[in-house]
Amino acid sequence: MRLSVPSIPLEILNTVGRAQEISLKAAIERVVNFLTPGNTTVLTGAGVSVDSGIRAYRGNDGRQRYWSRAYMGYQPIHRAWPNPTHYALAALMYTTFIKDIITQNVDGLHAKASSLSVEEEHPQILQLHGSLHNVHCQKYHFEPRARYQYRISVINPKWKQLADDLENSRIQLRTNPDGDIELPGIRFDDFQIPPCEMCLSEGVVETTMKPSVIFFGESISNPARDDSFARIEACDQLLVVGTTLATYSAFRLVKHALELNKPVLLLNHGPTRADKLAGVDKIEMHSGQVLHAVAELLTAGIGDEEVDRMLSSGIVTPVPPE
């Protein structure tokens, strides 16, 4: 069981980006002007969750190895709190400047910022690559991740103790955006993976459980693909935030918006797969520097307690060093 490790073509990495250097004030003004008409769809990536302590790249490896690392890494993901960027986007969606959000992230932080539990589905938030907060078997019997974590703990007391020891040690674990962590030097061959209980009740013993996210070699579901295209077609412009667009499922949405002659504004620090696409206007800057100020300007004077709560919320958690 291995997660996708997307990459950006070398011809893009080896060239200087087209974005001109601008001041923070100018970047804020450009995003404000872009969002003012409303009916904007926002496409986000791992970059928006970096300030929540979740690193912006994907992990890999086999099933038993993955589940041992994922078991240890889920608590930091589950405890992660939305940062000011998540809350800024939630406030802009609440006030209708943003129509909806398509996210490549599987951490559930956009839902948390919108006052939902991570297991709930928000009609305005499409999780393009699924969610870490649910698991399912090959027959698509679903189970909340928190309950599955408990079942793992029961049959793996040694690993439960190791998780508790790491928790109490205050060691900063390197948590990947897919929910697993690095465990150098730790054997995982004794780690047991609980089967699907519904399959067991049907007499099926050998079942494979996985987080409800897209793994290596898998494509996003047809409903998710169709939904993502429909959202692009229904919006007037597309704001892309915190993503290299290395995954084709996201990159093709930008291309689709351009094919429909919709304005595309890209806010990202570093090269992206769309840097050479004609029609993409890029701001080379970290989203956390820009979006909170944008939300404050656009919502000024509304006088809504929920907006005030969102814009006063958010925790910046440093990512553990490499």
Could you characterize what this model shows?
This protein has 322 residues and is α/β, with parallel strands linked by helices. The chain has a single domain (10-311), classed as TPP-binding domain (Rossmann fold, 3-Layer(aba) Sandwich). It has 12 helices and 9 strands. The strands form 2 sheets. A 6-stranded parallel sheet has the order 3-2-1-7-8-9, sandwiched between helices. Strand 2 (98-103), helix 5 and strand 3 (125-127) form a beta-alpha-beta unit. Helix 2 (24-35) packs across helix 11 (291-299). The two termini are 24 Å apart. Mean pLDDT is 86; it is low at 1-5 and 57-61.
Which descriptors apply to this entry?
322 residues; alpha/beta; Rossmann fold; six-stranded parallel sheet; three-stranded antiparallel sheet; 9 strands; globular; disordered N terminus
> Architecture, according to CATH?
3-Layer(aba) Sandwich
Q: What is the helix fraction of residues, given as a range?
A: 25-40%
CATH topology: Rossmann fold
The rough form would be described as globular
Structural class: alpha/beta
| Number of alpha- plus pi-helical segments | 12
Number of strands: 9
Q: Quote the distance from N terminus to C terminus.
A: 24 Å
Strand adjacency order, main sheet: 3-2-1-7-8-9
Order of helices and strands: HHEHHEHEEEHHHEHEHEEHH
**Tally of individual domains:** 1
Reading off the top of the CATH hierarchy, the class is best stated as: Alpha Beta
Biggest sheet character: 6 strands, parallel
How much of the sequence is in beta strands? 5-15%
